[in-house]
Amino acid sequence: MDYQILTLDLDGTLTNSKKEITKPTLDALIEIQEDGKKVVLASGRPTQGVLPLAKQLQLEKYGSYILSFNGGRITDCRTGNIIYNKTLPDDCKAPLYEIVSRYKDRGIDIIAYAQDTLISGICPNQYTKLESRINHTPIVTSEDFLSDVTGPQNKFLVTGDPEVIEEIGEVVNRHFRTYLYAYCSDPFFLEIMPPGIDKAHSLLKLLTSIGLSADQMICCGDGYNDVSMIEYAGLGVAMENAQSIVKDTADFITKSNDDEGILHVINTFMR
Fold this sequence. Notes:
By secondary structure, the chain is α/β, with parallel strands linked by helices. It has helices spanning 23-34, 47-56, 59-62, 93-101, 126-135, 145-148, 162-176, 199-210, 227-232, 244-249, 261-269, and strands at 5-8, 38-42, 65-68, 73-76, 82-85, 109-113, 118-120, 139-141, 156-159, 181-186, 189-193, 217-221, 235-238, 252-253. The chain has an 8-stranded mixed beta sheet, sandwiched between helices. A 6-stranded mixed beta sheet has the order 8-7-6-9-11-10, with helices on both faces.
């Protein structure tokens, strides 16, 4: 198969344990773009949190793409145009905040994403600060979260100790049922997403818009939120360091993110 598009999760996949893209992998990704192939960075991060890696890979120069918010938004890096954008219902914000606020004495926080900041709705905990570091985005603590968070939101993130996060997730899903989608991307991160949104759903939108098929796409990942796109791709790839469910889903298991796993995929299937 002549694969034309390579979709990559970031943490644990594209980047190594130091959160870096190695030079051999960087050079290979630029080379395949020079040959006309496209790269998609697919992440749960907000768009601004993906931009530093996108710039490193020169996605703007080669007309590649960012899939952010776990598929809630797709951006054409060359034009800056948003190809697809799915947001949460406006009326979920107040009841969601009320539920999360019940747990404020147990160290829970809720985050919204502004253009250049993270808005902390209760009090930044260690996991909110981790999200800030991952995305290179400062935290602003809100005194009035419901008033300060304006405009459509692609997602909210609830942060806290895993046992409390698990409890909140159950309460949120019981309350909202199919009105929104709550799941853990990490034990300490509860993602609040529009219903029906995942990486595969959004990749279908992207492929349709650029005239490619899933058979022409390779998707690489290591975590639960990568399973849908790995199932959907013509070639689904799990990292050696991936969760078991990801490996069980994949067509191919590459080397780990600390052993040039993405370079191995490129050398095997795209060169």
